[in-house]
Design goal:
Elements: H1 8-13, E1 18-20, H2 28-41, H3 46-70, E2 109-114, E3 126-127, E4 132-136, E5 147-152, E6 161-162, E7 171-173, E8 179-184, E9 194-197, E10 202-205, E11 226-232, E12 243-245, E13 268-269, E14 275-276, E15 279-281, E16 285-286, E17 295-296, E18 315-316, E19 324-328, E20 335-338, E21 351-352, E22 363-366, E23 384-386, E24 409-411, E25 420-429, E26 446-452, E27 459-461, H4 468-471, E28 478-483, E29 492-497, E30 513-516, E31 526-531, E32 534-539, E33 548-551, E34 557-558, E35 561-565, E36 590-593, E37 598-601, H5 629-634, E38 648-650, E39 656-658, H6 666-669, H7 735-738, H8 758-771, E40 780-782, E41 790-792, H9 809-812, H10 833-865, H11 886-905, H12 910-938
The structure holds a DNA duplex.
Subcellular location: Nucleus
Domain CRC: 718-831
Biased composition (Polar residues): 23-35
DNA sequence: GAGTTTGAAACT
DNA sequence: CAGTTTCAAACTC
C-alpha cells in the first residue's frame, strides 16, 4: 500500500503514526479536496476552515441532539452548553456534573466527569445503540472521585451518553494506563450487543446524528488521555464472542494471520461504489477477532466527515503495509497489526478514515495464510502448465537391487511459515522389455515426503531414508550430497551410493524405470521418475556406481524431463564433471553409450541434467550444467577451456566432442560434503502466470529480476545483455547474475559471471544469499495458493515514478502494486485513470505494431505473389512496360502539358480541358504500345 | 548517444 | 533497521 499524504489534522496532532492509503480512486471532487488539502498543508491552515464548517454543521446537529435527548432514556445526559460555543482549544470542564460537553474540534478539550457508582452509571448496561463509542478514562482506577477526563477530538464530534457497564464482560478493557475508545458498529438483530465490563466507569458516546468530518480522533496527550482508538466490530460476533482489547490491541484470529498476505492494491469499493481512501493504523496494536469473522471498522466520510452507522468491513487481505503484521503474538497466530513507518514511541490509532459517504461499507476480512507449502524450486521455466511443485528425483538402482525406492526429500525450513507435507508416490517399474537382474516387475508405491517451506529451498535427501539396497549396489550406503550448480538457482541433491565396488567401464547397463506417480509410459533403457507430470530419467545407467544429481526442478510441472545420464568413462579419482544441458537444446548431437550401445540425444537432456562418471569411489564425475549454459556453449562463447576439465562424449557422428568443460568446484564435489555450504538457489514460488502459455521446455533458472517481465522470463524469449561496469556482474545489479545466468553476449566490463571466475561467482552467490536467502527467487509470484494473480513478492518502493514506468518492478511486470509495496504516489492500481490511459496507449501502440506487422506480411506476401514480369517475354518480345522509361514519361508529360496549354488558349472549359488531356494520355499510351510492337518485330527470334 | 532519472541493491 | 551510497536500467533530449 502506498504511502499517502497524511491527514493534515492528524499530522498536526503528531500522534498518529501511520497513515496509509487503502485505495485512492478519487472522484474529481475528492481530488479537488485532496488538492486543496495538499495546498493547505503547505501553509494554509485547513483546520480553521474545517472547524468553521464543523461548527456550522454542529449548530444544527446540537439542536437535533438536544431534541433527541429529551426523549432519550439514557440517564443523566445533559447538554450544558450549545455546541456552537465550542471553539478550538477551548476547554469546557463540567466539574462534577453528571453531564458533559462535546468537544468538536482539534485540541478542544472535552471534559466530562466519569463518575463511579452514580446514577448516571448503570451496571451491565448493554450498549446496543446503533452507534456506540465507549471511552475509558485514564487513570480512573486511581480516582474515587469524579474524573474529569480530557478527550480530544480532532475534527470530530460525537453525541455522548454517559453510561457504564459491569459484570460479565464481552469486552475487557484495561483502563489502568490507556484510554480506549471503542466504536461499535450497528448490530444486526441476531447479533449480540456489546457488553462492556469495566472496573470503573465507562462513558459511551451514542451518536444521534451524523457527523460531518473525518473521524480523526487525535489524542494530543496520548500518554495520559486517549492512546488508541479501536473500532471493534460486533456485527458478526456470537453471543459468547469475546473481544479482548488489552491495551488497545486488536488480535487477529489464529486462522487469519496476516503475515505474507497481500492483496492487490485495489480500492476498497463499497457497495455504493464508494471507496475507503485512508486507513490509519497504529503500532503495537492488535486486532482481536477470535471468531475469525470479518472485522468491521468504523468508516468516516472524507467528504462529509460523517460516521456511518452501517456496517463497515474492510478486507484485511493485505497486511503488508496498511495491515502489516509484524509478528505473531502467540504461537497460535495472532498477529500484530502495525504500520511500517512512524514513530514507534508514539501511540497511535486504529483509525479508518474516510470514505466518501456514509452508508458505505468496508469489510475487514481476516485472510488466512496460505497453508500449502511453498513450492520447491519453482523456476519460472517455460512450457509449464501445472502448478505442481516439482521435485525431480531419480534413483540409481544398481543391478541386482530391488527397484523399490524410498526417498525422503526434505526442504530445509528456513522460515516460520508452516510447512506441509506433500506426498509423492514413488513407484519403481521395471520394464518388461528390458533385461534386468531384478525380478521385481511390479511397482511398489513408495512415499516421498516433500516438506516444503517458504525458506530456502534446500533439499536434503536424508541418507537414512534411502535404503542402500535401493540406491546402489549391495553394501553401498546412500549418500546425500547437496550440490550447488553454478548458475543454477535450484538446489541439486545428489544421491550417491558410496559403493566400494570398482566399476568397469564396460559394465552393462541394466535400465529400469523408476516412476513416481502415474507412469505414462515406460522408457526403455532409462530410469524415469515422475513427479506430477515431470519426469526424471536416468538414461543408460551403466553400473551400480551410478550417481546422480537431482535438481529440484522448478515447481512448475510440465512435460520437461530431467534425464540423468551415466557415462562410461575412465575410472578416475579426480573430480570430473560432465555437464549436460539444463535446457532442451536443439542440437542433434547424441551421446553414445558404449556399454549399452545406445545413443542418447543430448537434446533429450533437460534442465539440471547431470550425471556421474562411474568407476570411481570418489564423488567425482558429477555432471551438471546450468540451464542456459549449453546454449551459450553452442554459441561458442563464454566457455574457456583453461583450467577446465572436459569429458569426451562419443557422438553419434563418431566425433569426440568436448561438450562441457566445467571447472571443478570444490563446494560441489567435495566428498562427504553433506553439510557443506552448498548454495541452494531456488525459487520457492510458483512460476509466473504468464509462463503457462509458453511452450518451451522448463528452465530451472528462475528469473527473479527485471527480465521476468510480464511474468515471463525473458530467457524464454530473449534476454537483454547487461552493461555492467563496476559490479563485475557478480551482484544483483547485474540482471544476468540475478537471473542465474552466465553473461553471454553482454556488454559488461570486467565480467566475472562466467566459468572462468566460478570461484568468485560462487562467493558472490553465497554472499547474496546471506543477505537475502530469497535473492534468487522470482520476484513475481502468485499471491497465494491457487491464486492466479501475480504479485511482486516484495513490492516496489517507488517514489517518483508513480509506479507507471518501468522503473517500477511491478509495472514492468505488468502487475498491479499491492499492499506489499511501499511506493509513494502509486498510480498502478486497478482503477487508476493514469494507468488505464497508459494501458490504452500501450494497447493502441501494440495494436498498431501488430497491424503494421500484418500489413507488412501481407504486402510482402502479395509482392511475392506478383509475377515477375521480365522486360522480355518468353518469346523474346519486349513487353510494353519496358518502354516506360524516364524519357518516355517526360515526353508523355510534355505532350499532356502541351494539350492542356492548347486547351487553355482555346478557352475550353475545365471539363473539356480534362477530356483533352486524357485523350492525349491515351494517345501517348497507344504510341508506346505500338513502339513496343514494332520492337517485337525487330527482335530476331532466337 | 550522452546525460539524467530512478529505484533496487549494497553498504554503513 | 534506517539512512546513504552504489549501480545499472530506464528514460529524456
Amino acid at each position: 500500500m502506498p504511502n499517502q499524504i497524511p491527514d493534515p489534522t492528524v499530522e498536526q496532532s503528531g500522534d498518529v503514526n501511520d497513515i496509509y492509503e487503502v485505495t485512492s480512486p478519487q472522484t474529481s471532487q475528492e481530488k479537488a479536496i485532496t488538492s486543496t488539502r495538499e495546498k493547505e498543508q503547505k501553509g494554509v491552515s485547513l483546520i480553521t476552515r474545517d472547524l468553521i464548517q464543523i461548527k456550522e454543521e454542529l449548530d444544527d446537529f446540537s439542536h437535533q441532539l438536544g431534541n433527541n435527548l429529551e426523549d432519550s432514556k439514557l440517564p443523566g445526559l445533559t447538554i450544558l452548553a450549545p455546541l456552537t460555543d465550542h471553539l478550538p482549544n477551548k476547554s469546557v470542564p463540567t466539574g462534577n456534573k453528571t453531564s458533559f460537553e462535546l468537544g468538536i474540534v482539534q485540541d478542544c478539550k472535552v471534559s466530562f466527569p466519569l463518575m463511579k457508582d452514580t446514577n448516571q452509571v448503570s451496571a451491565d448496561k448493554e450498549l446496543v445503540a446503533p452507534f456506540t463509542m465507549v471511552t475509558l478514562a485514564t487513570e480512573m482506577n486511581n480516582s474515587t472521585d469524579n474524573v474529569n477526563t480530557n478527550v480530544h477530538f480532532s475534527g470530530e464530534t460525537l453525541p455522548v451518553t454517559v453510561v457504564s457497564a459491569a459484570g460479565n464482560s464481552a469486552v475487557n478493557v484495561n483502563t489502568s494506563k490507556q484510554q480506549v475508545v471503542i466504536l461499535q458498529k450497528p448490530q444486526p438483530p441476531n447479533h449480540s450487543s456489546l457488553s462492556v465490563s469495566l472496573p470503573t466507569v465507562v462513558a459511551s458516546f451514542q451518536p444521534v446524528g451524523q457527523l460531518s468530518k473525518p473521524a480523526t480522533l487525535v489524542c494530543s496527550q496520548p500518554s495520559t488521555v486517549c492512546t488508541s482508538t479501536v473500532y471493534v466490530p460486533l456485527t458478526v460476533g456470537k453471543n459468547s464472542e469475546k473481544i479482548v482489547v488489552p491495551h488497545s490491541t486488536v488480535t487477529i484470529p489464529q486462522q487469519t494471520p496476516l503475515v505474507a498476505q497481500t492483496a492487490p492494491k485495489r480500492p476498497c469499493l463499497m457497495p455504493s461504489g464508494q471507496s475507503v481512501t485512508k486507513i490509519m493504523l497504529s503500532k503495537n496494536s492488535l486486532v482481536s477477532n477470535q471468531s475469525g469473522n470479518p472485522v468491521a471498522v468504523a468508516v468516516t466520510n472524507v467528504a462529509t466527515g460523517s460516521i456511518t452507522s452501517q456496517q463497515h468491513t474492510i478486507l484485511l487481505a493485505s497486511p503488508g503495509k496498511s495491515y502489516s503484521v509484524t509478528k505473531p503474538i502467540t504461537s497460535t497466530g495472532p498477529s500484530v497489526m502495525r504500520g511500517v513507518t512512524g514513530n514507534s514511541n508514539k501511540q497511535g490509532f486504529y483509525l479508518l478514515s474516510p470514505v466518501k459517504s456514509p452508508g458505505t461499507k468496508v469489510t475487514m476480512i481476516p485472510v488466512s495464510l496460505p497453508k500449502s507449502p511453498q513450492k520447491i524450486a519453482p523456476a519460472p521455466a517455460c512450457g509449464t502448465t501445472s502448478n505442481f511443485p516439482r521435485v525431480a528425483i531419480a534413483t540409481a538402482i544398481a543391478g541386482g537391487s530391488t527397484p523399490t525406492v524410498t526417498t525422503t526429500c526434505t526442504v530445509a525450513k528456513q522460515t516460520t511459515m508452516p510447512a506441509t507435507t506433500t506426498k509423492v508416490l514413488w513407484k519403481t517399474v521395471v520394464p518388461a522389455t528390458v533385461k534386468s537382474s531384478t525380478s521385481a516387475a511390479g511397482s511398489v508405491p513408495q512415499t516421498i515426503k516433500l516438506v516444503a517451506a517458504s525458506g530456502l529451498p534446500q533439499v536434503l535427501m536424508k541418507p537414512g531414508n534411502l535404503p542402500a539396497s535401493n540406491l546402489s549396489g549391495p553394501g553401498a550406503s546412500p549418500v546425500v550430497c547437496p550440490i550447488q550448480v553454478p548458475g543454477s538457482k535450484f538446489p541439486y541433491v545428489r544421491l550417491v551410493t558410496a559403493s566400494t565396488q570398482q566399476t568397469s567401464v564396460s559394465t552393462v547397463v541394466t535400465p529400469r524405470t523408476a516412476t513416481v506417480g502415474p507412469v505414462s509410459g515406460i522408457r526403455s533403457m532409462a530410469h524415469s521418475a515422475q513427479v506430477g507430470t515431470s519426469t526424471v530419467q536416468t538414461v543408460g545407467m551403466s553400473s551400480n556406481q551410478l550417481r546422480f544429481a537431482v535438481p529440484i526442478v522448478p515447481a512448475i510441472s510440465g512435460h520437461s524431463q530431467v534425464k540423468i545420464l551415466s557415462i562410461a568413462s575412465k575410472p578416475s579419482s579426480s573430480a570430473q564433471r560432465v555437464l549436460f544441458p539444463a535446457t532442451t537444446v536443439t542440437t542433434t548431437s547424441q551421446v553414445h553409450h558404449p556399454a549399452s550401445n545406445s545413443t542418447l540425444g543430448i537434446s533429450q537432456l533437460t534442465p539440471g541434467t547431470s550425471a556421474l562418471l562411474s568407476g570411481s569411489n570418489n564423488m567425482t564425475g558429477l555432471v551438471v550444467l546450468p540451464a542456459q549454459y549449453l546454449t551459450q556453449v553452442q554459441q561458442g562463447q563464454q566457455v574457456s577451456s583453461g583450467a577446465l576439465l572436459s569429458t569426451n562424449f562419443l557422438l553419434s557422428s563418431g566425433q569426440g566432442q568436448n561438450i562441457l568443460p566445467v571447472p571443478v568446484s570444490a563446494n560441489t564435489e567435495t566428498p562427504n560434503s553433506h553439510q557443506q555450504a552448498y548454495i541452494p538457489i531456488a525459487a520457492a514460488t510458483a512460476p509466473p502466470q504468464g509462463l503457462e502459455s509458453v511452450t518451451h521446455q522448463s528452465n530451472p533458472i528462475p528469473a527473479p529480476s527485471r527480465h521476468q517481465v510480464n511474468g515471463v522470463a525473458l530467457d524464454c524469449k530473449e534476454r537483454r545483455p547487461c552493461n555492467c561496469n563496476k559490479s563485475q556482474c557478480l551482484k544483483l545489479y547485474c540482471d544476468c547474475f540475478a537471473n542465474g545466468k552466465f553473461c553471454n553476449s553482454c556488454n559488461c566490463a570486467n565480467c566475472y559471471n562466467n566459468l572462468d571466475h566460478e570461484e568468485e561467482r560462487q562467493k558472490a552467490i553465497r554472499s547474496c544469499l546471506e543477505r537475502n536467502p530469497m535473492a534468487f527467487h522470482p520476484k513475481i509470484g502468485k499471491s497465494k495458493e491457487g491464486d492466479q494473480e501475480r504479485r511482486h513478492t516484495k513490492g516496489c518502493n517507488c517514489k517518483r515514478s508513480g509506479c507507471l514506468k518501468n522503473y517500477c518492478e511491478c509495472y514492468e511486470a505488468k502487475i498491479l502494486c499491492t499492499n506489499l509495496c511501499k511506493c509513494v504516489g502509486c498510480k498502478n492500481f486497478e482503477d487508476s485513470s493514469e494507468r488505464k490511459t497508459l494501458m490504452h496507449l500501450a494497447d493502441a501502440a501494440e495494436f498498431r505494431v501488430q497491424q503494421q506487422a500484418v500489413a507488412k506480411t501481407k504486402i510482402s506476401s502479395q509482392l511475392q505473389d506478383l509475377p515477375i514480369r521480365p522486360p522480355i517475354s518468353a518469346s523474346g518480345e519486349r513487353l510494353p512496360f519496358s518502354f516506360v522509361k524516364q524519357e518516355v514519361i517526360e515526353a508523355t508529360c510534355h505532350c499532356l502539358l502541351a494539350q492542356a496549354s492548347d486547351g487553355e488558349e482555346s478557352q475550353l472549359t475545365y471539363v473539356e480541358l480534362e477530356k483533352l488531356v486524357v485523350k492525349e494520355f491515351g494517345r501517348c499510351l497507344m504510341q508506346i504500345i505500338e513502339t513496343a510492337n514494332q520492337t517485337k518485330d525487330l527482335i530476331p527470334e532466337t
